Amino acid sequence: MQSTRQGTGRWTALTGIISVVMLLIATYMAFVYAPTDAAQGNAQRIFYVHVPMAWLAYLAYVVLFIGSVGYLWKRNQTFDRLARSAAELGFLFTTLVLITGAIWGRPIWGTWWQWEARLTTTLILWFIYLGYFMVRSYAGEPERAARFAAVLAIIGAIDIPIIHMSVRWWRTLHPEPIVINTGGPNLPDSMLLTLLVSFIGFTIFYAHLMLQKMQVEMARDRLAEREADFLMRPVGRSKNETTYPTTGREVTGASED
Amino acid sequence: MNEPYLQTSGVYKRYGRQVVLRDINMNVGVGESIALFGANGAGKSTLLRILATLARPSRGTVDAFGEDAWKHRESVRQRIGVVGHQPYVYPELTCAENLHFYARMFELDADEVVPVALDAVGLSNRRASAASTLSRGLLQRLNLARAILHQPPVLILDEPDTGLDRAGRQVLSRIVADQIGRDGAVIFTTHSFEFGLEMATRAVSLQEGGVSLDRSAALLSTDELDRYVSTPVQRIAE
Amino acid sequence: MGRALAIAWKDILIEFRSRQFLGAMLAFTLVTVVTLNFAFDLDRGDRTSDAAGALWIAFFFAGMLGLGRAIALERDRGTLEGLLLTPVDGGTIFMGKFLATLLSLLFVEAVTLPVFAVLYGLPAWHPWVIALAIVGTVGFAGLGTLFSAIASSGRTREVLLPLLLFPLLVPVLLGAVQATAIVFQGERDGILAWFNLLVAFDVIFVTLAYLGFSFVIEE
Question: Do B74 and C77 touch (CB under 8 A)?
Answer without folding.
Answer: no
